[in-house]
């Protein structure tokens, strides 16, 4: 880890959509998510990607729950995957997932996939056989426990979005140790494994090992299942729209400044009723549509990281901060 981390506090201005834009210009996002009993994770993640402005979203999910996932949102496409006896993506899905990933601009792997013996192999195939930007969350991270070095096999950007429990499993330590040293541990892991770490929770840490940003906004209202699934979809949408996380250099592990700022842009919303608990579906339902300047407040579009100020653009419903206590 660099002895001195560069603190990122400004968000780069994002390009507006031209009047003659079409869906093909805003990225193809693949979501690999869901299993029997956890179809909601796939729906939330796919809906988050749509709300984030992705041009096309495809959700690959086990065949038995594909009709459920398809009915969750009419705006994304679905792909039924071969599955095991427990309704989780099976080993036979590897080849199809690699092909789908190769035709995408960004990929999410993990939400609701479940803990299966085949998941590490499926993830390994995607890591080693594709170069597409990846967002790894939930069960994808759990499958990397004890084998985090697999991340280095990917010759493209990797963003991981662990909560403290998942990060503790990656580090083989307890949650208290993670919480006591969030910045240093996240930065050290990011540099060692050539990844961008988004360590969720109060004061979400975003780092590539050389740069770091901490989102100081937020409240316990986001401490509910599914909000992390929405976040993963939103991050993938931004990556899929061409916000390059890595500089044009041969050193693939050296990221350019926009990646931390891009994720902070997703993380920078605050809920208007900070002591109210609400469901994850409200998050993507209330997040401003990313279609005119990406739907962010004027201050954010001018490059100012929102802090305590109230967004200047009125938006109906609660504005969700995607860095709640536990996400």
At the fold tier of CATH, the topology name is: UDP-N-acetylmuramoyl-L-alanine:D-glutamate ligase
**Oligomeric state of the chains present here:** single chain
The gyration radius over C-alpha positions equals: 18 Å
The share of residues in helices is 25-40%
Q: Total number of helical segments?
A: 12
Largest sheet entry: 10 strands, mixed
**Largest beta sheet: what is the strand line-up?**
1-10-9-8-7-6-5-2-3-4
Proportion of residues in extended strands:
5-15%
Query: What structural category do the secondary elements indicate?
Result: alpha/beta
When the domains are counted, the total is 1
Question: Element order, helices and strands?
Answer: EEHEHEHEHEHEHHHEEEHHHH
For CATH, the homologous superfamily is named as Ribokinase
CATH top-level class: Alpha Beta
Sum up the overall morphology in one term.
globular
Q: Runs with pLDDT <50, length 5+?
A: 246-258, 268-276, 292-327
Q: What's the end-to-end separation, in Å?
A: 26 Å
Mean pLDDT: 80
CATH architecture term:
3-Layer(aba) Sandwich
Give structural notes.
The chain is α/β, with parallel strands linked by helices. Strands 1-10-9-8-7-6-5-2-3-4 form a ten-stranded mixed sheet, sandwiched between helices. The chain has a single domain (6-11, 26-301), classed as Ribokinase (UDP-N-acetylmuramoyl-L-alanine:D-glutamate ligase), CATH 3.40.1190. The chain is globular and about 50 Å long. Helices cover 32% and strands 13% of the residues. The model is unreliable at 246-258, 268-276 and 292-327 (pLDDT under 50). α4 links the parallel β5 (106-109) and β6. The chain is built from twelve helices and ten strands. The chain has helices at residues 39-51, 66-72, 94-102, 119-129, 139-142, 164-171, 175-180, 182-193, 227-240, 258-267, 280-286, 298-301; strands spanning 6-7, 28-32, 56-62, 77-81, 106-109, 134-136, 158-160, 196-199, 204-207, 211-215.
